[in-house]
Design a protein that fits this description.
The strands form 3 sheets. This protein has a 5-stranded mixed β-sheet with strand order 6-9-4-1-11, with no helix packed on it. The protein has a 4-stranded antiparallel β-sheet with strand order 7-8-5-10, with no helix packed on it. Helix content is 45%, strand content 22%. The chain folds into 2 domains: 158 residues, no CATH class; 126 residues, Immunoglobulin-like (Sandwich), CATH 2.60.40. It starts with a helix and ends with a helix.
């Protein structure tokens, strides 16, 4: 059996380095470029009590001595989803969570935050919750839990931040998980295709210097590069869907090509088999003597 060193000739090794040198920086550039982004999501909303329903007409609901007819619970999450810090001075005014349908804010509190020492200051006024400007480093987030009277839908988020055109509204995490995982799976498959075809085309171009091309090497190379672009694009989309931090994304972007190196070697070996078959066919067509000569396929079989 041939060793890894024997299987990877100089052109093949150069092709591996070229593949890693071209693809990985593209992925890292697309996701690592400076981006200032603020996002929010309504992660939970439910009606706790509605005394207007006929079966609850005999009940009376009060909050601080005042009658209320419907009690809803809403949880909103705010996140720095970019890779640049958002400083307190970047905010033109306090962040506002606005409720629709004249729903009244009864109570608001910060339910959780990352990091734990993140302490947003809240204030309430009728149909709105205000959040004082604060420092949000990349990946920082916090959730605000509200108890409101009436139907607050749709909940709106209002903020003016330097360098951000508009706040991004995200879907609830439970809905983001499956699409994000699916994007990573398809991206991994595209990486496999990229490296496999890259191995085949590397052998073809390397042998094309000494004889006729074994298969349409340029077509294979174009398909390989297209697969790489698709893989990189899907990986960037998965990062946004799963809200991956920059460090985690870099780890994934570097790990995937390394995992695919064995696939590249398989492509190299398959390309060599294609080359051996082509050389045998060329000799037969030209009527050249073939005695005493071993093809690469034969040497691979014996090795």
């Amino acid at each position: 059996m041939k060793t890894l060193y024997q299987a990877m000739s100089l052109p093949v090794a150069s092709a591996i380095l070229a593949a890693l040198a071209v693809l990985v920086p593209i992925v890292i550039f697309l996701a690592g470029r400076p981006v200032k982004e603020l996002s929010f999501a309504v992660v939970a909303q439910s009606t706790l009590v509605d005394v207007t329903e006929s079966k609850l007409s005999d009940f009376e609901l009060r909050f601080r001595g005042e009658k209320i007819r419907r009690l809803d619970s809403v949880t909103v999450r705010l996140r720095n989803s970019g890779n640049l810090p958002i400083e307190a001075r970047d905010f033109e005014r306090p962040i506002a969570i606005d409720l629709a349908n004249n729903a009244l804010v009864l109570f608001a509190s910060v339910s959780d935050s990352t990091p734990a020492n993140l302490s947003p200051a809240l204030s309430t006024a009728d149909h709105q919750v205000s959040i004082a400007p604060l420092l949000l480093n990349p990946g920082d987030d916090f959730s605000v839990s509200l108890f409101v009277e009436g139907d607050p839908s749709p909940v709106q988020f209002n903020a003016r931040v330097s360098g951000i055109r508009s706040v991004v509204q995200m879907s609830p995490p439970s809905r983001e998980l499956m699409p994000g995982v699916g994007l990573i799976a398809v991206s991994t498959l595209a990486f496999f295709v990229y490296f496999y075809l890259g191995g085949v085309s590397a052998v073809n171009f390397g042998r094309g210097l000494a004889g006729p091309a074994t298969v349409p090497a340029l077509d294979v190379l174009v398909l390989s590069l297209a697969s790489g672009v698709v893989a990189a694009t899907l990986l960037v989309a998965a990062r946004h869907a799963l809200e991956l931090s920059a460090s985690r994304f870099y780890a994934v972007a570097l790990a995937l090509p390394l995992v695919c190196v064995p696939v590249f070697i398989v492509g190299v070996r398959r390309g060599r088999r294609f080359a051996s078959r082509h050389q045998d066919q060329a000799r037969n067509q030209m009527g050249a003597p073939n005695h005493g000569m071993q093809t690469d396929a034969q040497r691979d079989a014996r090795g």
